[in-house]
TrEMBL record:
All copies of domain Serine aminopeptidase S33, residue ranges: 38-287
Gene3D superfamilies named in the record: alpha/beta hydrolase (3.40.50.1820)
Organism: Sphingomonas carotinifaciens
Pfam families, per database record: Hydrolase_4
Protein name: Lysophospholipase
InterPro entries: AB_hydrolase_fold, Hydrolase_4, MAG_DAG_Lipase
């Protein structure tokens, strides 16, 4: 089945509501039930995303018979902020893992088949939750997972710089300023996707819904991302994950390190890897049509095998 064109309107049968974490934090959630609710897909996005960015992906998987659920991560989208401005801040990614595990407990339905799809930061948090035994879905798909950051000076020096900057001054301050010029937008588009339409859709959401948009990450976020991904790559519990996991990677990714993700995949007992070359940037499910078609076909085949 060819992927549908990007779209920005909610299906009339979809619902936007709230979920409250055990500590009282209110998260914005999305639910689109299928006619048969026995196949349930939790779709979790990356840093600074809101779930509307993936409405076209939701439509694709819903057409395959999946009930779709998503929630905006704490601190972004419609789930509040962890800094006083629009800076994307975090002090401990464990808080987001706790949110994911608690949401799973509320969302899980006995007798149904459950899958999780995590993009970028969502992929990292999904794999960490699996390694920590916080949930056990029937299948997990990690699309361009954040298992290592790309840095101009390399991961080691990048980690040291971010740690030093987070400890010097306010760790909530932005690590860089988001440029709003046409050139800056073009550079962002090249890092994210070759599909101009998909990127224009994202820009339209930012213009129309500024309250859902997040700015640059804080120095604390960057330092924590380096440290937390390194810790997960070294976690011996990866080899004990029993859930079948599919890694969908873009070798030309300029935001996360696909080589590190591929190395992690070799340590999981039930993992498979789908790789793209220079035809794909970071947002594989928002890429040009041939990339999306191949990615959807691979994911559909995997889910049909392991979570029929």
């Amino acid at each position: 089945m060819m992927p549908v064109a990007p779209r920005r309107k909610l299906d009339p049968n979809a619902r936007v509501g709230e979920w409250t974490a055990p500590d009282g934090w209110r998260h914005r959630r999305f639910d689109w039930p299928a006619a048969d609710d026995r196949r349930r897909l939790l779709f979790q996005t990356g840093r600074a995303d809101m779930f509307e960015k993936y409405l076209d992906a939701f439509e694709h998987f819903h057409a395959q018979g999946w009930s779709i659920t998503a929630f905006d991560w704490r601190g972004q989208g419609g789930s509040g902020r962890l800094a006083e401005d629009d800076t994307g801040h975090i002090e401990d990614f464990g808080t987001l893992v706790d949110d994911l595990a608690a949401f799973w407990r509320d969302w899980h339905r006995p007798g149904a088949r459950h899958a999780v799809l995590g993009h970028s930061m969502g992929g990292f948090l999904t794999l960490r939750a699996l390694a920590e035994g916080r949930f056990a879905p029937d299948a997990a798909v990690l699309v361009a997972p954040m298992l290592g950051l790309r840095a101009p000076m390399g991961a080691v020096l990048g980690h040291r710089l971010a740690t030093w900057m987070a400890g010097w001054g306010d760790p909530r301050r932005p690590a860089w300023r988001r440029g709003e010029s046409a050139r800056a937008a073009r550079q962002r588009q090249q890092r994210l996707t070759h599909d101009i339409t998909c990127f224009a859709e994202q820009q339209a959401w930012r213009r129309d819904n500024p309250q859902l948009c997040l700015g640059s990450p804080s120095w604390s976020w960057v330092a924590q991302a380096f440290a937390a991904t390194a810790a997960l790559r070294a976690d011996p519990r990866l080899s004990a994950i029993t859930t079948p996991v599919q890694f969908v990677l873009a070798d030309a990714d300029r935001l996360v390190d696909a080589r590190m993700a591929a190395a992690v995949a070799t340590r999981l007992p039930h993992a498979e890897v789908v790789r793209f070359g220079p035809e794909s940037a970071h947002e594989i499910l928002r890429e040009i049509a041939p990339v999306r078609a191949r990615a959807y076909a691979a994911i559909d085949g995997f889910l049909d095998r392991v979570a029929p």
